[in-house]
Design goal:
four-stranded mixed beta sheet, binds adenosine monophosphate, globular, nine-stranded mixed beta sheet, alpha/beta, 13 strands, about 35% helix, about 325 residues
């Protein structure tokens, strides 16, 4: 069970995530999942919790199902004191459909619910958070959130097509404030107008951050840092293992940030190792709908898969 805490580095730096905790309806060429637990924050927190304790700041509404709450509670290293339940509001809900290649998807509907209101409150106990991840939500909310942590060691943001389209100005402002950004290949192209993944990252660095991670789904990820470039293949998943790619990006970021918080490092070498942990952690997420697979595995499963990944990716 993910509740096993003994493997988490006791010296891990406080890691905090804010974003969406929501209800997803997902359609793939082979199936459909109705109103499962989702949201950027939920995936991130579950994935990060295998590497370091993680604090959550998010809001849900009166329709938030009890069964989803208990799944999140099952991840013992996820601190839910910052998960606000609003009796007068509704939970963020997203409906997406994947194309046959299981990489591209379209959003069929987004119900903002609590996202349309004031951001969730940050518990006093979270004030000393050193590692901050701004999972997908409105960039103005991400920016405002960041202002509460002037002494943080590392702030990394995620974003997506919707925000690049409707909140570009706020996103550009955010990029001036964060240390790093994690985004999909198509989002990097949309943001910069450049299709080459490395050059697109360089353009993003010109906008402010010290590093950018460009995720290319089954083709792996590229890290462009002011101090160097790293490339990471994807975990070689078989067709039958890919049930639902939703949350892969957030889980990747969770594994990455969880590792960095666990070793308390932010340099380019550590980031390179971190994206390997992100890759391996996310490879479990896609094996089921929602958080089901992550809720089944132990840290030892991630370690075992990391060994396979290292062997498969070895050069020389
Ligand atoms: P990904 O890791 O990119 O597959 O993220 C999938 C998750 O993002 C889903 O669980 C959705 O609930 C969530 N999501 C979808 N659209 C948005 C949005 N506009 N803002 C924040 N989260 C979103």
């Amino acid at each position: 069970m993910p509740g096993d805490t003994c493997w988490v580095y006791s010296a891990a730096m406080p890691l905090l995530v804010t974003g969406t905790v929501g209800i997803d309806t997902v359609e793939t060429p082979s199936g459909r999942a109705e109103r499962v637990l989702g949201g950027s924050c939920a995936y991130f927190a579950a994935a990060a919790s295998f590497h370091a304790p993680v604090r959550v700041v998010a809001a849900v509404g009166r329709d938030w199902p009890e069964k989803h709450r208990s799944v999140l509670r099952g991840f013992k290293n996820v601190d839910l004191r910052g998960l606000e339940v609003r009796a007068n509001s509704t939970t963020f809900a997203w409906h997406g459909r994947y194309k046959a290649n299981m990489n591209d998807r379209e959003t069929l509907s987004t119900h903002l619910g609590v996202l349309d209101e004031k951001p969730p409150a940050i518990p006093q106990e979270y004030a000393d958070s050193d590692f901050i991840f701004l999972a997908n939500t409105h960039p103005a909310v991400q920016l405002e959130f960041l202002r509460h942590f002037p002494k943080r060691r590392l702030a990394v943001a995620d974003t997506m097509d919707l925000w690049i389209k409707i909140a570009r100005k706020e996103l550009e402002q955010l990029l001036k404030e964060v240390d790093g950004v994690v985004l999909n290949y198509s989002e990097a192209e949309q943001l910069t107008g450049v299709s080459n993944a490395v050059t697109a990252c360089r353009r993003i660095l010109e906008m402010g951050p010290a590093f950018a991670v460009n995720k290319k789904g089954e083709h792996g990820a590229i890290l462009v840092h002011r101090d160097g470039v790293a490339t990471m293949p994807a975990y070689p998943a078989e067709l039958h293992q890919v049930v639902d790619p939703t949350g892969a990006g957030d889980s990747f970021a969770g594994g990455m940030m969880g590792y960095l918080a666990s070793v308390s490092r932010t340099d380019v070498k550590s980031l390179q190792t971190a994206i390997a942990w992100g890759t391996v952690t996310a490879s479990f997420t896609i094996e089921s709908y929602g958080l089901d697979r992550l809720a089944q595995i132990k840290r030892s499963d991630i370690d075992a898969r990391m060994k396979l990944f290292q062997a498969a990716a070895r050069v020389g």
